Amino acid sequence: MTSTQPSVGVFTTDIHLVIQVWDATLARLTGIGEESACGQPLTTLLPDLEKRGLLKRFQRSLNDGVVEVLASAFHHYLIPCAPFMPSKHFEKMQQHVTIAPLRDDETIAGLIVTIEDVTDRLERERELAARLAQGDEATRLDAAETLSDDQSYDAATLLDALSDESWRVRRAAVRGVSQRAAPEAISALLNSVVENHQNPSLLNSALQVLASSDVDTLSPLLDLLNGPDPDLRMQAALALGEQRDVRAVPALVKALNDDAANVRYHAIEALGKLKAVDAVEPLVEVAESGDFFLAFPALDALAEIGDPRIAPRIVPLLEDELLREPAVNLLGQLGDETAVPPLTAVLNSPTAPTDLIADALANLADRFEAQYREGSYIADLTSREISPTGVQNLLDALEAPDKKNLRSIAVVLGWLKRSGVDRALTRLMGRVDLRDDIVEALVRHGSTTVDLLVAQLSAEDLEVRRSAVVALGRIGDASATSAIVNTLDDESLAIDAANALGKIGDPQAVDGLLNLIGSGDASIRQAAVNALNSLAAPSIARRVNSLLHDPDPNVRESAVKIAGYFGYPESAGELMKLSSDRHEAVRCAAIEHLPFLEDDRAMEVLVRAIKDETPRVRAAAARALGNMDAPQVVEVLIKGLDDEDVWVRYFSARALGRRKSEESIEALERVLEKEKFNHVRIAALDSLGQISGQRIAGIVNKFVKDDDPDVAHAAQAAVEKSSQGN
Amino acid sequence: MGSRSQNLVLPKGAGALIQGLINERTGMFFDNGKRDQLIDKLAPLVIERGFSSYLDYYYLLKYDTASRLEWQNVLNALSVQETYFWREFDQIRTLVQILLPQWQAANTGSTLRIWSAACATGEEPLTIAIALNEAGWFEKASIEILASDASSKAIERAREGVYRERAFRNLSAGLRDRYFEKDGSGWRIKSDIHRRVTFGIANLMEEEQIAPFASADFIFCRNVFIYFSENAIRRAVRSFAKFIKSPGYLFVGAAESLIRVTTDFDLTEIGDAFVYVKRERVI
Questions:
Q1: In chain A, how many domains are there?
Q2: Strand B186-189 with B162-163, pairing
Q3: Separation between Cα atoms, residue A60 and residue B8, nearest integer Å
């Protein structure tokens, strides 16, 4: 059974170390009662305080105001007493002691001392340490994990486990030590590195701990870097790179001239990791030195540092076959427009590393696009510099079997308006990873790609067909119209096809689109209506007028939306009639389009609709009234705020915002106070914001802290709008 | 915005509001890269409702007390119903060959309950039923198989029990012919196996909806958490932990991990499968 009683006792002293407070926990733990302790000087209660070297710790806390900790591992106890519970390992209670100054305003008036009974924990720690030292792998792992997970255990217990033969145990130990690396643990680790660096397990674990600890390890590592042992210098360089401390840069730059190549190698890597801009020049010199073993990491380090000023120095390295690959990558990563001609020159050679150059050029363009919106500049430069051999290299690379990453090649080809390029690109439209780039390229190349894209409209893959139809719409070439119209029958393509036809704007599409306006899918109907509205072909008016009488309500609804959009005067009478159609959706469509007819009868129809119709039509009437100019609109909409249907109230509130009438302020304010549906209150807030003015700010300001975040947000927006309107 | 949503108004910030609300109510998480996809999938619902703005639709879903039916439309529009028979079968084999004998030894005379918590169009619970039948378990024990999905459309299809060829890509022709009958261009599950599974609708984010299913010995909730946010997974798993029996076994998809979201279940390797186990806690 575990004791649930507190294990931390407290006493306080005055400035002369005379005990003032001795709490009940401490009395229970030590067996010394409050009456025996209070009023006693600490040195009387604990006569060997000075002899044990502890008195000065109390005095330092009193004099310097610092917090002193007496760790149980070193001092074991402050107040000698038996363990509270019987202990296998300890005759005396083990105590963790914290001594802190007690302040009275700015001055130190005494000390507060906490004493924690840690006997039980230390006992468990010893048992775990024994299991860690002697058990089988599972036992050791369990012990290491327990010690790592519970940070109250001493990290030092885990140090030996850093060189355990099992990697699992080492991993657990690294985690535990690095989570709470104390200076003494670091110091012990460094000693281990110095003494045992031939043991790779320990060295690795220790370096991992150093890399992930918060303790300042710079100066001990610099000592190692400057020491006589080349192995230790190498490990120090490695660790300094992991530590990410830029103060190490000068020492690491100096280490670039170390006698040992391995030290130089790790110093180069470390400088890359530290992104040491100051090391760029010496690193370029290493890259230029022709020492293959060091030039490679030097180029990698330069890539990590990312200083674009070195790009011109890298160009000559393109001549070096061994260093060409990292040099190309580096130019792709850091170069500017001046890197394009040398890169393209390499691409133009018969034995070009095509993938590599394409990657670099595509990277360069992506970067220019992201930074300056000027990716097309790199594309144009490449197009100007590339030779027929370069183009052929790219086309051949595209055809090579088992290519996984073709994106860069497709991108670079997409910049080139050359024979055969578009055809090759179109063949790859089935690849999801390339499709977007290819479509962009084909759209950029414009009308010359229309035939290729039209051919893709019959591809097996729906996504290819979809991409082709979208691309054709963006190119906007009327020669694709009939092919696109033929795809309107395909339900999964109909919306994209209708959108594309709307963009192309060819009147030849009218018949095909009109065939869609009775579709059972509301999205398809809507897309067809929008496309027809974009075409604005004169033939539509006549056709639509007859469709207003169609027996299919879907067709009538769509026809109303087209006739209403254009406001054909000859359709006005029919639209008035259709506002009483037997189908609700048709009535809604007719009602919503009445404001655009400029017909005197519209107001009367709308007023009747918002009073007498179904909720959905009343809501449509409210929306429509927002677009009417008649003087009585505001009064009608204010009545709409009291409608029994929430959506009529919502759209009435919104419509009043469009009217911007001060007459509606009080009614909208009432909505804010009384409406139970928050979206209606939000609509009222939005509308009040549109009316704007000082009075509005006063009304809406009360709601900026509403419980509902959407209401509060709308209130804040209304406050801002209303103040802008002043 | 995608092609369907092109003709609708999406006010600034409305996409994020919808994304958050959908995540809160359904668990499904569409990250910013997939927000257009979400908006596009909702477009037909916005149009059908007679709205021209997504913001109006957001308010409908969030505030209108009559929007319960609309949420079902949302779940139908967003749920992924692509699955097949005998998918990730190792876990079902472990159930049939290892866990069921253990369960039977410890629970003589009780009824075993298995819940397929995201059954889509029914392939998973029917796979379980077929596997149990193949091993003769229906004769040896009283077994109840419950199956639910958030999408009413999916459950409708599961109840109909007719599957297209693609659903059989992993099932041997022999098993297919034994348990299914040709039905037009598809295959209909035979009624003696179909009736072993009780289908229902349950949104994993609604505790009161899952309560009738979740007091099970085995819960299969596979290939749904990949679409959920971490918080939503945590919520669902917490509900499972509340209702599942002890010991209770939770199976998730091979690509899904609960290690970061729960301490109620321990991950264990049993047979060839990884299983999350809720053990009886000794306090």
A1: 1
A2: antiparallel
A3: 74
Could you tell me the residue range of the domain that residue A39 belongs to?
8-117
Q: Taking CA atoms, what residue in A is nearest to B49?
A: A616
Q: Where are the domains of chain B?
A: 4-78, 89-278
Nearest to A526 among B7, B62, B63 (CB): B7
Q: Tens of pLDDT along A72-116?
A: 777 889 999 988 888 888 888 999 888 877 776 667 888 888 888
Q: Please tell me the distance from the alpha carbon of residue A528 to that of residue A558, in angstroms, as a whole number.
A: 9
Quick check: is A302 in a domain?
no
Closest Cα to residue A473, out of A491, A452, A435, A446? A446
| H/E stretch holding B82 | none
Shared fold status for B4-78 and B89-278: no
Query: What class does CATH assign to B4-78?
Result: mainly alpha
Beta bridge partners, B228, equal B28
Q: Which residues of A touch B7 (CB under 8 A)?
A: 526-527, 530
Amino acid symbol at B206: E
Question: For residue A573, what is the enclosing H or E element?
Answer: helix A572-578
Q: What is the largest CA-CA distance in chain A?
A: 113
Which among B263, B157, B144 is positioned nearest to B213, based on CA atoms? B144
pLDDT in tens, A502-540: 999 999 999 999 999 999 888 899 999 999 999 878 888
- Placement of tokens 């604990």 in the chain: A46
Put simply, the answer to whether B4 touches A495 (Cβ < 8 Å) is yes
Q: Do the Cβ atoms of B169 and B89 come closer than 8 Å?
A: no
**Yes or no, beta carbons of B63 and A677 under 8 Å apart:** yes
N residues, chain B: 283
pLDDT band at A181 (very low <50, low <70, confident <90, very high): low
For residue A522, give the nearest of B17, B47, B62 by CB distance: B47
Distance linking the first and last C-alpha atoms of chain A: 73
The ipTM of this complex is: 0.78
CA–CA gap between residue A82 and residue A48 (Å, rounded): 17
pLDDT band at A329 (very low <50, low <70, confident <90, very high): very high
Residue A538's CB: how many other CB atoms inside 10 A?
A: 9
Has residue A57 been placed in a domain? yes
User: Cα–Cα distances in Å, from A610 out to A58, A311, A578, A606, A622?
Assistant: 85, 71, 16, 6, 7
CA dist A587 and B234 (Å) reads 47
| pLDDT for res A3 | 42
- Give the minimum alpha-carbon distance from A620 to chain B in angstroms, rounded to a whole number: 8
- CATH number of domain containing A33: 3.30.450.20
Take residue A44 and report the two structure tokens written for it: 């009387």
Is A185 a domain residue?
no
Q: Is B50 within 8 Å of A523 when comparing Cβ atoms?
A: no
Report residue A60 as tokens: 């330092």
A384 located within any domain: no
Give B283's pLDDT tier (boundaries 50, 70, 90): very low
What's the CA gap between A334 and A451, in Å, rounded? 39
In tens, the pLDDT along B199-254 reads: 999 999 999 999 999 999 999 999 999 899 999 999 999 999 999 998 999 999 98
Span A434-453, mean pLDDT? Answer: 87
pLDDT score of B2 more than 70: no
Question: What Cα–Cα distance (Å) separates residue A35 from each residue in A24, A28, A81, A297, A707?
Answer: 11, 13, 18, 73, 56
**Cα torsion for A475, A481, A484, A485, to the nearest 10°?**
150
Task: State the Cα–Cα distance between residues B35 and B29, nearest whole angstrom.
Answer: 9
The CATH number of B89-278, from 3.40.50.150, 3.40.30.10, 3.30.200.20, 3.30.230.10, is: 3.40.50.150
Sign of CA dihedral A701, A706, A709, A714: negative
Give the tokens for residue B258.
Answer: 């609960």
The DSSP secondary-structure symbol of B281 reads P
B6 and A710: CB-CB below 8 Å?
no
